[in-house]
């Protein structure tokens, strides 16, 4: 459906380029799945996995399969004919956000499981400050996750094309069409202006939260590995 409405002048060579991009993405996803599932099956058969680890392995295996299924479901939404719609055919921003969110959960869970096996856990005294730091780190993680998901909505709606000035959006701090859709809740997920505005606010909030986490961590005696992780987090947030 994209061809007659948007890309009617596309040549065969140009089509092959985007086709190979999509094909490579699918093949790479399958390779990743096999690179996980085959060794996991081998370790299981050899009896190298403890009972709790078997649960983690099964959960991660399910996430790998679910990720592929969700990718197919997402792409399918961009290939549906919508004769009554005047909008440019595109994949659903909801499915795109779900696909990205699932990938982030899979990646984070894999990394967490791997590091738990490779690095022994530090036995630290459970002080009030350390508990607060851990809670704040969890809250920051949730905020970053939400920011990334809002980026998927920006991509799905091409909302990045609406305003390209910063920190103002055009000539205003708050755009006129921020709440143009009805009901109001629709604006958060379907209004390109609101979606870009939310992503900006969440991005600024994430950098602020990471900076505050770093400054708070400096007041607490922490192991070298933990301090390195917090410093690296701040550096990556600034680069991002």
TrEMBL record:
Annotated InterPro entries: COX15/CtaA_fam, HemeA_Synthase_type2
Subcellular compartments: Membrane
One of the protein's GO biological processes: heme A biosynthetic process
Record keywords, A-Z: Heme biosynthesis, Iron, Membrane, Metal-binding, Oxidoreductase, Transmembrane, Transmembrane helix
Membrane topology: Multi-pass membrane protein
PANTHER family with a match to the protein in the record: CYTOCHROME C OXIDASE ASSEMBLY PROTEIN COX15, CYTOCHROME C OXIDASE ASSEMBLY PROTEIN COX15 HOMOLOG
Record protein name field: COX15 protein
Organism of derivation: Climacteris rufus (rufous treecreeper)
